[in-house]
Design goal:
With 592 residues, the protein is an alpha/beta fold. 64% of the residues lie in helices and 8% in strands. It contains 11 helices and 11 strands. The protein has helices at residues 2-11, 35-43, 50-59, 96-107, 131-141, 151-160, 169-172, 175-294, 300-465, 499-513, 531-544; strands at 26-28, 46-48, 87-91, 111-112, 122-125, 147-149, 478-483, 488-493, 514-519, 525-527, 551-555. Strands 4-3-5-6 form a 4-stranded parallel β-sheet, sandwiched between helices. A 3-stranded antiparallel β-sheet has the order 10-9-11. It has a two-stranded parallel ribbon with strand order 1-2. A hairpin with a 4-residue loop joins strand 7 and strand 8. The longest helix has 166 residues, at 300-465.
């Protein structure tokens, strides 16, 4: 009742309201109707039934309200339209699942039949290897209106609140197939999640590896940079020492070049004085030439000789003068170059001093950076060790996940093999049922033909009776005493019995006294009573690939009526279904 439900809810630590209010998180109601239900639907609240509370109390935790169809309230108490005439039985389901299916059947308004009988209209079956499943197939062969479905059919009927078509392939599967497909989907989803997680871990591992490689590379570059700076510092120190020596040599060379310049300046002054003298001599010679030009007519030969001599001497003097001028220009150019090189050397000395100071500053800063880099390298080493430990833990976790996935894969393969075996058994049963149906039809045709023959024989007997003597008894029998190994059996035959009918009568007595059994590879004896049993024994023998199939005749513990247990009655009025294959009248469903 309501008070008991309140107490159970309070045991879970919840607060209970008499009516629905917007601050409620859940609404518990048996039916999808009423003002409280409409308000909860409008506000988007979670609506559950009492079954949800029972499972929460059993699990001692709050279970998700979407796990079962039974957790949702039903439409009304009248039941699902179209299921009020259904009588449903359950086969193969056990424990809480069977109770849940039974509650769904009762909630849908159908009748639940604990024992499977001919009144059952629907069978919710889990496996094909149960006896109830084989019995249901036989009932269907006999023409009974029976549907074999799985638990998903009743769940969808309650969920959609209408009778779902039983001929759908989704509902024709067995319950174990549906559960196996759901497990396969769950395993597939889990495998995808695990693969995504492994890929994410692999990406993070690669990123960490790349980060470690980049840090290692940067550390090596920094070490290389420190080594290069050390080499540069050593080379700069050597250059400074060499430049000091060069500066002393340059100072000595400058002193020598200064003396050379002074000597060159003296030579230049001497050349200037000689040039002035030469210019004076040229002026005098020109005056003398003018004087001689006046005497040229008289002294032509002498003048020619003097002119040639003068030209030669002049040319020599000009050549010497030009050489002296060129040497003076070269000395001036050398002096300018020496002055420029002196200024360049001075500038270089200043630049070297500045570079020396900058090198000292750089060396000080490099030492600081080296110390900071050493600290950072030590921290990176510690971080790298931590990352290596983390990677080892992730690798072990990944190996554990892979081993779990491998075991799940093996379990799935085992389930697939089991399902294939069940499917093969189901197909074999279907084939056996189809074969039995064909045999039944052929037997009915044979019965019909034999009945017609018997009717014709009875008509012929009636026609011949008019020619028999009046004192002869109709239907007189011949008593036969049949000696078996350890017992004696009695039977009676017609006086005009044929050999085939005698063999049938003797076989009837024999088959009632003995039982045919099949011995499997484990030496278990399985009784063969029907054609289906014989087909199963043949399949098992084919699987073992034995050279022969072993059949054993054993004494029956008690008399059992077999196929030949019906007595053939010929003569007199012919009842319905007369003859050896006469159908039995009366009896309940179990005898059939």
């Amino acid at each position: 009742d309501t008070n008991a439900i309140k107490n159970e809810l309070q045991m879970l630590g919840t607060r209970v309201r008499e009516r629905y209010t917007p601050d409620c998180t859940h609404l518990m109601t048996p039916y999808q109707q009423g003002r409280d239900y409409e308000g909860a639907v409008r506000d988007g609240k979670i609506i559950v039934s009492y079954a949800w509370l029972e499972d929460c109390l059993t699990a001692r935790r709050v279970v998700p309200h979407t796990d079962k169809v039974l957790y949702a309230p039903i439409k009304n108490e009248q039941g699902v339209p179209g299921l009020e005439s259904c009588v449903i039985s359950i086969a193969g389901y056990k424990g809480p699942i069977r109770n849940d299916i039974r509650e769904l059947i009762e909630a849908a308004g159908a009748a639940f039949n604990q024992n499977f009988t001919k009144k059952t209209t629907h069978l919710i079956c889990y496996r094909a290897e149960s006896e109830i499943y084989a019995k249901a197939l036989l009932f269907k062969l006999e023409g009974q209106q029976l549907e074999i479905v799985n638990h998903q059919w009743i769940e969808d009927c309650v969920k959609n609140w209408r009778r779902m078509p039983e001929e759908s392939d989704t509902y024709r599967k067995l319950g174990v197939e549906v559960d196996f497909e759901e497990r396969l989907e769950a395993e597939k989803k889990l495998r995808l999640d695990v693969e995504a997680q492994l890929e994410e871990e692999e990406r993070s591992r690669r990123n960490l590896q790349e980060l470690l490689e980049a840090e290692e590379k940067s550390r090596q570059e920094m070490q290389q940079q420190l080594v290069e700076e050390e080499h540069a510092r050593v080379s700069l120190r050597g250059q400074l020492e060499g430049e000091g020596r060069n500066r002393e040599a340059l100072q000595q060379e400058f002193t020598r070049s200064r003396g050379d310049i002074d000597s060159l300046q003296g030579l230049l002054q001497q050349s200037e004085a000689s040039r002035a003298k030469l210019e004076t001599a040229l002026a005098d010679s020109e005056a003398e030439r003018r004087k001689l030009a006046l005497q040229i007519t008289d002294l032509q030969r002498q003048q020619t000789t003097l002119q040639s001599q003068f030209a030669r001497s002049r040319q020599d003097l000009l050549t010497q003068l030009e050489a002296r001028l060129n040497s003076i220009e070269g000395l001036r150019a050398d002096l300018d170059n020496e002055q420029k090189s002196h200024s360049d050397i001075t500038n270089r000395l200043e630049d070297e001093k500045r570079a020396h100071r900058e090198t000292k500053d750089n060396l000080f800063a490099a030492e600081k950076r080296e110390k900071a880099l050493q600290d950072s390298l030590a921290a990176e080493g510690r971080e790298k060790a931590a990352l290596v430990k983390q990677l080892d833990a992730e690798r072990k976790s990944r190996l554990h996940i892979l081993s779990d996935f491998e075991s799940e894969r093996k379990q799935r393969e085992h389930l697939i093999k089991q399902l294939e075996a069940e499917q093969k058994l189901r197909q074999s049963l279907q084939k056996a049922v189809a074969t039995k149906e064909e045999l039944r039809l052929k037997a009915e045709e044979e019965i019909e033909r034999l009945n017609q023959d018997i009717q014709e024989m009875m008509d012929e007997i009636d026609r011949l009776k008019t020619f028999e003597p009046p004192d002869k008894e109709d239907g007189s029998k011949v008593q036969v005493k049949l000696f078996l190994d350890e017992e004696i059996r009695f039977l009676e035959v017609d006086p005009d019995v044929s050999y085939e009918e005698l063999v049938i009568a003797v076989g009837k007595v024999f088959i009632e006294s003995y039982v045919i059994k099949f011995e499997d590879e484990e030496r278990h004896h399985v009784t063969v009573k029907t054609s289906d049993d014989l087909m199963i024994a043949i399949r098992q023998n084919q699987k073992t690939e034995a050279a022969y199939m072993k059949l054993i005749l054993e004494k029956a513990g008690e008399k059992k009526r077999g196929f030949f247990g019906r007595k053939k009655k010929i003569g007199g009025d012919q009842p319905d279904g007369a003859g050896m294959f006469r159908k039995k009248k009366g009896g309940d469903d179990d005898d059939d």
